[in-house]
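Recall that a protein's primary structure is simply its ordered list of amino acids. Everything else, from secondary elements to tertiary packing, is in principle encoded there. The following example makes that idea concrete.
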Amino acid sequence: MQLIFMRMMLLVMLGSTVIAASPLMRETFSTLDAKVWTPQPPLNARGPIPANGAWAAANGELVATGSAAPWTVLTAGGAGWTDYRLSAKVTIRQPAPIRTGPIHSSQFDRFEPIDPQHPNTAHAEQFRYRYYAGEFDWGSDAALYFRYQDRLACYRVQLSTEFQEVILWHGTGGYLQVVPCKLEVGKTYSVEVVARGAHFQVSVNGKRLIDYWHESLPTLAGGIGLGAYHSTVGFREVTVAALPEADEAMPTHQPKFTTRKWRTLRWIFDGNEPITLLEKESSQDDSYLSKALFYHFTKLRPGYRPTFYGWVAILIYPHMTQLVGDEWTGVNTAGEGSAKLILTFDSVTPEETLRAGHTIVLTYDRAHGTYRHDVTVDMTWLKDQTHSYIEFTDPFTYNNKAPGRGVKYPWLPAGHEWGLFPGEDGMLYRHPISEATRLEPMLFNNWQTRKDSAFWLLYPDRAVCPIWEHHNPGEQSGLGVCHWGYDWHQDIVWEKGRNFKAGEKMTVKYAHAGLRPHEAERLFQRSRLHPDSDKPEATGPGTFATIVPTPYAFPLCNPAGTDFAELQSVREPYLGWHFWGEYVVDREIGHNDRYSLRMDGPGSVNGMMYHHMLDTHTEQYLCTVWVKTKNVRGGKGPIITLKYSYADTPRDIVETGMLGDNDWREISFISTVPLTHESSDIIFELDGSGIAWFDDFSLRPIEAGEKVAEKRPAPIAVALPEPVKDLLLDLPCDEGEGLQCVDRSNRGNTVRLLGATWAHTEKRAVLRFAPNTGAFVLRPSPEFSPKTLDGVKGFGLSAMTLEAWIRPAPSTEAGAILGYYYSPVLYLQPAGKEKFSLNLMATPSKGRRVVATSPALIPANEWTHVAATLMTNGSIRLYVNGKQVLDTPFEGMLSSSANHHYISLGVMGKFYGYPYHGDMANLRWWARAATDEEIAAAVAQRP
């Protein structure tokens, strides 16, 4: 029912403001105060309100002086106002400062932590939030708001003197229209907005510039507002007049695709609506992304929020293909101004091993009312190569999930909870979207689809459910969800590797599209819960079920208060917080009940709670947890860490000093929320042997003016042993119990076991690997970090020795012993079933991968000492039982992956390639090349 109100006049005069109210409204405004205009604080304001700019009546105008916070806004009128004409005279007296950096780009959105020109904008650092919420629209000066409900449920007509344009923006739709308009500083313009239903018209000085129908979740009622952005703007003769209800039918959408320069960058427009940004990545934060073409701020439906962004390249570690030319010279278009836009461009790997020709066809799917982005990539290998997988698309989604429990101001999430895909058996499955359903951080939620054609659908969504289709004949597509829940990998995996010859060609096809909610609903009703969700104990080695003995009973965290008695299974589609790590839920010992979180040594064990989003209004949190210990020794004891994302170091580390036996003790501390964050990690850690219990955890905001006392213990001084000279990793592997192997080099490179178990010889315990189990050092010490020499980023060591005692089981598959991601890695290659050759694989910074293979064979079911030395610009030497069996040159420095710095045992890489089967002990990694005599001496240490 449309509310019709009589004409309302707002006369802005020097010193006073009068609104002639409709009898139906029964409102009277008489003075320039909160009863007339209401100041609207920014969404993420900190401190007293209002602090968002200033307003004053002077010389017949209401003058806004925009502050360093986002849009300075006053609003008036009722939430029930529907169809009306809003007009005002607007004078931009001082424009916003001209920004020197990018305004919209992948770098600005994802990597730039602080606004350099206004470092005090307390909320300008929320990644993914800035563009889409429209609060950070550098370049516009003034605005009229209509249909105003709140900061994100409203429309805004923006005027920009810098870019000479008028913009129509909406909280759920983003930028709806961008139209050129000549605007001058100091000149007064008559601006008129007509709003009828979902039909909006905007005129400047009597010339109609915007005529737009908003089909995707329009806001149909609300008041009016005035706004300034880092500028000084005068408003006068603001008038609102009711309009009679109109019987208008929304016309059929007529797409017209063009590419044009907008705000310094190249965009794809549909008519006057920007729907995709094309940008060549320039950030060096992720070197393997450098120079790739990004398909950014991409919409899947007219008038709806940007849904995703991602590179348009082929990813083959350690690099992806880079755009040849730039987004202007390298990307050619056909069909400009039509309903079918075709983009073509080439990309090539930095090593010039692969060249790819890309074609993107953009169309409007009338049957679904959505955009469709069909991508074809024709790859040609320039050199012989062997690959285990290629990744052909990796969309990152914008605000696809609601924030965690306790957040007061969500930022228009789509609310996706489920992923749907056709499995290997052709059945349609659904899987919950959690931060990490398989909880080991180095593993993704990975599934294999049926061959040839498949898809991945996010569900539900109020306007359009994203769907990514794959069309790769003869190939099976892999789907991977990063544990942080935004990132959807799609690839082709060859478990035993695939050899490509120079000149060989391959084509992959995929599409970014969308389904309307009712269409997605039908698919969801047909789907069934994936077995990985239904039976978590069957999810495979190295995953949650292996780490936690009670896979159906992991804790649910409520930041307001968690007693660990509330348990749940991985069937939950959305978890505000998520647990992983080496813990169990103790059902016999608790602080106020019989439940708690328990950790058992030896080594440094921890459990981490990942929280998707903190409340950005909060300046400080009080973190509280109760701790109990038994027989804790040989370390620092229980440690509590609160860490925020995108911060260089943890923000709060509390060492409890609770060694030995201690009854329940309350630990609390105040944490100051940094400006740059969007998620947090709470880490409960036990450093040393023994048992620690954690219970009654809470993380609550501290209200303004509240007095809070910490119960933070004074850290104890712990004398740590000095690291062993030149020895970077020393793993006797003789603990015999637990989920860790302690690093005796005293560098903290403790190994986490993922499925590997303990066995015993006549002398001692040893580590046993079954197929598809492994172990990882997830955070190696700084000695393993990459370094740059002569402008080339490479491995941190120039010389090294890897050694181990091994007793391999009979196998026909290769087995990794010890390695650093993909290079270097020491591994076995089968020679029949009962014997193996020893190999060291290493990749120089320039040139092809080197594999050194021993002529001497290693028998199955017998203990053998193996070792390898490597010297950059020197040689690789292999040893079997203390005897040198190979000496081969190695030229250049050792290269390094820029994104995955971790050491693995029993497997190679995160996908569990080269699974070792058998026993291991006495693994060491030296920062120099050992002598023949030193290696021979190690043979005497037989397990």
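Helices lie at 106-111, 130-133, 517-526, 531-534, 544-547, 932-938. The chain has six helices and 65 strands.
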